[in-house]
Amino acid sequence: MKPTSLRPPIIPPRATAAKLFLVGSTIGPVVDSLHNQCLLAYDIAPITVSISSTAPPLFCSSWVVPPLLGIAYVVLGYIIPRVIELVLNWQSGTVDVVDGDGDGYDDKRIHDKELQNKAVCAVASTALIIKLSEVLQTHDTISWWGHPIMLDSKLNLILMAASDAAQWAILDRTPVAFLAAIIVAFGGPLAELPFVANGFWHYLPEAADYLPLSGDLIKAGSIADNSDLALSSITGPCYFAVTMDAIALSRYIYTSSDGR
Fold first, then answer.
1. Which pTM does this prediction carry?
2. Where do the TM regions start and end (predicted)?
């Protein structure tokens, strides 16, 4: 007996959507906080948790972030992969049901456990990638076998992209997830523009190296009036990783909900 793939509906069932929203709105802000202190500052409803006034904050976020990330996990983890499967007529990599002879209950239990383990590993690896972005953003050099390596934005993106590729190759290896994560890596930062423009948060000058519609002109000062709309290029690979763990969570939640 082995799993066979079925194409799920494009709109998630209520139980799946609710659980994905809950995970995204709770775990998401914690993972996001691993790097956001060196990238941006929240201007509306900020949250700061510190153990002392002299130590760096343990957690920084905003009350607007949990619902945004809850919605994001539903969209990134479930809806975008379904749209890709539908448009390209690809076989689903999300839903496996056990078929054949034998003890179906035991097979499903083992299969669900595998999906659960992958989901946990995906969240943990995403947290490590987010933390890597913080390390790269806050250091000018790193040491490799005793040799200093100078860091810049291009090398940072290469290192982050390599980490993303390793995460996908180890935990997923489906073309649907890869394409979804690539789309979100480019589109995710752009989706922040309305929030940046309306003062929900702003990127710190040392991290704001990307003005989407104007390339590197921001560095030349020719569009200084729009510099408050700048984003951080290192967030693209972070969106890739977040999409991977949202998809892994979606697979586990969908197949384990309602007795699937």
1. 0.86
2. none
